[in-house]
Amino acid sequence: MTYPVAVPVSRKRKKTRKSSRKYRPETYTSRGGPGAQQQELAAAMAGLGEYRRQRDERRASLAAAAARPMIAGLVGLAASQSDSDLEDELCVRIGTALGELDDAPIDDHVGPNAFANAVIDAAVKVVGTTLAGEVDGWTHAWRVLTAITGIVNYPLSEHAMESIDDLRARPGGDLLPETPAGPIITGPVVWTRDAYGSRFGIAAPFRTGDGLDRWYLWDIDACGHDAFTVHNRYHATPDEALADWQAGVGAPAADGTVLAAVDDPGLLDDLMPREQGMMRPGGENVEQFAEYHRSKRLAEAVLDAIEPARPHRTSAPAGLDRTTAPTLFATWLREHRPDRSQPEDLEELVTELADSWHISGPAGLYHTCSPHRVALAVEHIRGYYQDDFAADVIALLPDWTAWLADRNATPAHLADRCRPYAHGEPHKAVSADDGRPDYLARTTE
Description:
Blueprint: H1 34-78, H2 83-102, H3 112-131, H4 139-151, H5 156-168, E1 184-185, E2 190-193, E3 199-207, E4 213-221, E5 228-235, H6 238-249, H7 251-254, E6 260-261, H8 265-271, H9 286-290, H10 292-306, H11 325-336, H12 346-357, H13 371-384, H14 387-394, H15 397-408, H16 412-415, H17 419-422
Helix pairs in contact: 1-2, 1-3, 1-4, 2-4, 3-4, 3-5, 4-5, 11-12, 12-14, 13-14
């Protein structure tokens, strides 16, 4: 189950000057006067409200039904697991459950946050039941609950803490120990980026409940209209984290990359995953679902750690952006393609291309150009403009990518990898099964 990604849709698809067709919007009429129309609208809204209420109740029931046996299994497993192993197993089981729930019909669809709330509630119920029972019978359930509390991001974490406060107010609640502190960073946050400049590996060391440190990796792809975390997991060492990231990016783009201290906290702030709610792109696989909440919770800790050094966000940095690119590109065309005749509406075409190149995401990455980004741009242009105008815009892409490669001093062997997609060759990692771009694909450049 996927939800459409938030992209600009307010303007109509561009009409070329060749097209003289005019579209008149359909008009809808209703029998009866204004009073009758208001009654129809009120009835429709009431019916919609009741439908949503019943749908939400069913989804909550499905989430609870999936959460209860999962919590029971984890409680039974807790005695033989370390804290970090229990947390990892929790994430794996959440990912498996979300993968199954995500395949349900739309009315039965349970999102990651709704399921996480059900998991919290199920764990709280077990702790509450065991508190009223035998002495120390609550300890395993408590470890499961605190594991959940440690991986969920805001606002889920607030719900978990409020539920724990409620448990402490019940009979026997004074037996509960202090809630473990949230994720603790034990060293510097480090990162690297690929040769195209739009794929990032970010890693940070965290102290586990067992007293050991392990490194969490975020593999973040900013080639699309935003920065998307396409892969993440814990590793024993930073070298293992780097090797994992390099394998995902591919040797040509990741060759020679190393992890280094973060030197641009503002860009890191733009890249790290955050709660998106209903605006999440959708299409997560089981592994991505497994880390869906934990990756955001650990990202919160990273952003808290860099807060003193993080500058306030600004508008696009000086240099290249959608307002300066059209003039700079047109100038480059005149200088580097003097013998080529350009279309009469070149100014309009380059303006639209510059606008389509960077829809959202970190402004400081406007200048980057990778094969994946070119393929996504083609996909967007073809879906956004009428066919003949889209073809004219795409015809500029080979020169656009050459201009950016020249500006970025991209090595020729890497710039050449962009060229087929600038000419419209399909990219195997761009289109999802439903025909829309798969922004969460872990693309090898």
